[in-house]
Design a protein that fits this description.
This protein has about 80 residues and is mostly helical. The protein has one domain (about 5-75): 2-Layer Sandwich (Beta-Lactamase), CATH 3.30.450. The chain contains 4 helices and 2 strands; from the N terminus they run αββααα. A two-stranded antiparallel sheet has the order 1-2. A hairpin with a 4-residue loop joins strand 1 (about 25) and strand 2. The N and C termini lie far apart (about 35 Å).
């Protein structure tokens, strides 16, 4: 086995064993390139149902949506 594959497998195992939902997004297209499988156990939605930022935003309460999306996107783009 290639050492980099081994490190990748270890990293993925650690990432997916947390009680958090790791994710990675392509900021150019605003689509998720990765959503941790634990999203199903924690929130009840299959990872495959989270394709874009719109999928995330549409699941928020309408009164909170604009403020939360703007804040989270700006913080993430700033690397915070």
């Amino acid at each position: 086995m290639d050492p980099s594959e081994s490190n990748g497998a270890v990293y993925r195992t650690l990432l997916e064993s947390t009680r958090a939902i790791p994710w990675k997004i392509d900021w150019t297209t605003l689509t998720f390139s990765y959503i941790g499988p634990q999203i199903q156990a924690l929130l009840g939605w299959a990872p495959s149902t989270w394709v874009s930022v719109d999928d995330w935003a549409s699941r928020m309460h309408p009164d909170d949506r604009e403020r939360v999306v703007n804040f989270c996107v700006s913080q993430s783009q700033a690397g915070v």
